[in-house]
UniProtKB/TrEMBL annotation:
Keywords: Signal. It comes from Gryllus longicercus. It comes from the Eukaryota. Residues 1-16 form the signal peptide. This is Ig-like domain-containing protein. InterPro entries: Ig-like_dom (IPR007110), Ig-like_dom_sf (IPR036179), Ig-like_fold (IPR013783). Residues 4-137 form the Ig-like domain.
Length: 264
């Protein structure tokens, strides 16, 4: 993971005096389904390089691939190649300068498969420089549910599920009896990788005897790589159980002590 950073640092020394990439403006995170995103490669040229564009070529590489996914030679039409073929607005100009106008990638509708390392490589006849940066295109949950069920009158099962996230999500359950947030013990979490995304579910079985009334259960799903997080809460009243008739009872020892509303 730190490898590209090291390369970028080393290339700094090599390009002394000539062409130099001063900024690689690649967004670290982009939401799947955004209308577009721009990856810009800002470089400085010596005055004589600007005038004649002495062999200037701008190339972008994806995930260390051997061939470029974009290439532009000033005076010529930019080319979208490989995974970026048909995914770019190649007419977009990031500056009005003939030596820099098409240096950037203008990606239309970025999707999760375009997550990865982007390397900008700029060269002239005499010199070259490159820099690499990672971009993550993340997808948020399509469906997010937190439910409670009673496998028997004395306990409750809390189940949480979220679908269609990318990259890999994490899930946690919490209970908050009186202001304090407790991470729940014995939570089973299961992650399933589907085509290009992840489903995740967590569940825990709690005994009513261990719970205050009411107890709030929280489910949090997050994508650690992009600091995305959402949560849901439900309230549970331990000691209340449903009779076959559909009415509800407050439990006292083994008896129904009072008829109560099923949800308060
Ligand atoms: C990303 O967005 C595209 C549409 O822009 C959609 O078809 C695809 O299912 C989404 N991917 C995920 C993992 O949500």
């Amino acid at each position: 993971m730190f490898f590209p950073l090291l390369i970028a640092t080393l290339s700094r020394c090599a390009g002394a005096g000539g062409i130099q990439i001063t900024h690689l403006n690649v967004p670290t995170e982009v939401r799947n389904g955004s209308s577009y995103t721009i990856l810009d490669c800002v470089y400085s040229l010596k005055p004589d390089e600007v005038d004649t564009e002495r062999g200037l070529v701008v190339k972008w590489y994806f995930n260390n691939g051997p061939s470029p996914v974009y290439q532009w030679i000033p005076g010529m039409k930019p080319q979208d190649l490989g995974v970026l073929r048909g995914r770019l607005n190649v007419l977009h100009r990031v500056t009005d300068n003939v030596a820099t106008m098409h240096r950037a990638l203008y990606i239309l509708n970025p999707t999760t498969d375009l997550s990865g390392e982007y390397k900008c490589h700029v060269s002239t006849f005499e010199d070259e420089d490159f820099m690499t940066k990672k971009m993550v295109v993340y997808a948020t949950e399509k469906k997010f549910e937190l439910t409670q069920s009673k496998p028997d009158p004395d306990s409750v099962r809390i189940a949480c599920s979220a679908k269609g996230l990318f990259p890999e999500p994490k899930m946690a359950l919490y209970k908050t009896p009186s202001g304090s947030k407790l991470s729940m013990p014995d939570v089973e979490v299961e992650t399933t990788a589907k085509q290009g995304s992840y489903d995740i579910r967590a569940q825990a079985l709690m005994s009513d005897a261990d719970l205050e009334s009411p107890t709030f259960f929280d489910c949090e799903v997050k994508i650690p790589e992009v600091r995305y997080a959402v949560r849901k809460t439900i309230v549970y009243y331990p000691g209340i159980y449903e009779l076959p008739s559909g009415k509800c009872c407050r439990r006292l020892w083994r008896h129904c002590s009072a008829r109560v509303a099923c949800s308060v």
